[in-house]
Specification:
This protein is α/β, with parallel strands linked by helices. The protein has two domains: about 40 residues; about 325 residues, Rossmann fold. The chain has 14 helices and nine strands. Helix 4 runs parallel beside helix 8 and helix 5 runs antiparallel to helix 6. The protein starts with a helix and ends with a helix.
């Protein structure tokens, strides 16, 4: 009888504890939601742009931004596109207005401005600065995840028909490859590109180089994880790194330069470094600068002005004990992330390893503004 009463008491205590835990959990979630409203967080679930169903398939570039898209990333960052799929809601006419200079920025997530609103991206900041001096139309045509080859295809299909005066393109350390789009179109796009290279009569490859390119075709066609498989290939044949640079970066850039020159458009490459700046990035940019100079193109290098504070980088990383991480409600985790990122924007130049904060974007915009002012046609004539 005593054992039976003791068992009932234990079960009752367990039930009370469980009920208390559930009630506490519910109160925390309700409190977090109210706190999110207090912080003016538009969409409490913490999501990156590439999880927002932002893209449509495209046969030439693999994928493009959906026209008329609307959503939020990072809880509070407006992700909107106009009728052409360019960032923002302002319409873009095919023919630009008289006496208005048109600048189009193409590229990947850095050009788009991951983690910041359009007005806080470097193109947004640049537009404000330029329009103080003269009428400018600055168009953000960035597409998250694009490689250099996709940027070339995008330039020809979407940017040049709009008759820009200047095209800005940014280089990131991961521009060799595209992101794996949900349609897997990027795979077939690159397979077609490689096969075209092998069939061209104006380019001569050695037998080793041909085998190297054929291995790329096989990986893009059959590998479950393209990035991992290609990295293994590149690591196994470092002596062919020059060919990797040539087919993924140099050749598309040379074609972009020529197309812009034919259209009397200034192509200006931007070298925006990652926070964990490595020797390989510097070596790559040195080679690409040489390619640009040899082809009569321009570039702006912000490596010297975007050097992050390593102590702040280490300090900003949010860490928690695994057990607490699993017990913590996702709603609370999301809000904590958003609060931490807000603090990072106020003090640092990078949100993460490669995307500039509001502060970082302002620094980039100022550097571009100074260059454009210094090299404007009227100033060039005076000098």
């Amino acid at each position: 009888m005593f054992m039976k009463r003791k068992s009932i008491k234990i079960i009752t205590n367990i039930g009370i504890t469980a009920a208390s835990f559930v009630l506490t959990y519910a109160i925390i979630i309700a409190g977090v939601k109210q706190y999110a409203k207090h912080l003016n967080i538009k969409s409490p679930p913490f999501r990156y742009e590439n999880s927002l169903d932002l893209w449509d398939p495209d046969p030439l570039t693999g994928y493009i931004n959906k026209p008329g898209f609307s959503g939020y990333s990072f809880g509070n960052v407006s992700v909107r596109t106009n009728s052409l799929g360019f960032r923002g809601i302002k319409p873009v006419a095919v023919s630009r207005a008289d006496n208005v200079s048109r600048i189009i920025g193409i590229g990947d997530s850095v050009m788009w401005g991951v983690g910041v609103n359009l007005e806080d991206s470097f193109l947004g900041s640049l537009s404000k600065k330029l329009n103080k001096d003269a009428p400018f139309e600055v168009i953000n045509a960035g597409v998250i995840g694009y490689s250099t080859y996709q940027e070339m295809m995008f330039l020809e299909k979407f940017a040049l028909p709009l008759k820009p005066d200047i095209v800005l393109v940014n280089y990131c350390s991961n521009d060799f490859l595209p992101s794996e789009d949900p349609f897997k179109n990027a795979r077939s796009l690159f397979i077609e590109y490689f096969r075209d290279l092998l069939s061209r009569q104006d380019i001569t490859f050695t037998q080793d180089e041909k085998l190297y390119i054929e291995k790329h075709i096989d990986i893009f066609g059959n590998a479950e994880h393209v990035w991992l498989s290609l990295q293994k290939l590149w690591d196994s044949q470092p002596e062919l790194f020059y060919l990797k640079m040539k087919i993924f970066l140099k050749m598309p850039i040379e074609r972009m330069v020529k197309r812009c020159q034919n259209e009397n458009v200034r192509l200006i490459y931007l070298f925006i470094p990652p926070s964990d700046l490595r020797d390989q990035y510097k070596k790559n940019t040195d080679q690409l600068k040489k390619v640009l100079l040899e082809n009569g193109a321009e570039f702006i290098d912000v490596q010297s002005v975007l050097v992050p504070d390593k102590e702040l980088l280490a300090e900003k990383r949010f860490r928690s004990r695994p057990i607490l991480k699993h017990l913590r409600p996702k709603e609370l985790t999301d809000v904590i992330k958003m609060i931490m990122i807000r603090r990072v924007h106020q003090r640092d130049m990078f949100i993460d390893s490669c995307h500039p904060t509001i502060k970082g974007n302002k620094i980039i915009a100022e550097h571009i503004y100074q260059y454009l002012t210094r090299t404007a046609p009227e100033n060039a004539k005076q000098s």
